[in-house]
Amino acid sequence: MDQIDAYAFLSKWRCGTYYSSAPFVFEYDYPTPDGGRNWTGWQAAGNENFVDAAAGWRLAADPDAPAMRLQQTVDGGRTWSPIKIVNWQSAQFDFVDAQVGRTLVSDGTNTALVRTLDGGQTWAEIRPELAHP
User: Fold this and answer.
1) Considering the domain boundaries, does residue 44 fall inside one?
2) Taking the model in full, what pTM does it have?
3) pLDDT of 74
4) Which of 5, 49, 82, 105 gives 93 a disulfide partner, CB atoms 3.0 to 4.6 angstroms apart?
């Protein structure tokens, strides 16, 4: 269980069937904005990240394309809106507020650390600077 703020938590559940030759695994997220009084839920993409009880981001498969879709929620995960199509295959989000976030992304071959200053609309790679003597 992840603590989002003083009263908001995100519970992650995983279930699956392993008795067949092709096992199925499903992950579900259940957030609560009020210390556990009310819960919502959805089938998880596995990389959801929230900065408060309402605002979050995730990378999800795009049913209309082979690419992935960066999505945002402003209602605690009840609905997810597309931000943009990206060529990332995986992402580990870390947003510090509704505008600023960092993400470790991979396209299956390359990995990069990227950041956004506008809530996920644009991303720029963070490259380390070498100190010169």
Assistant:
1) yes
2) 0.76
3) 93
4) 49
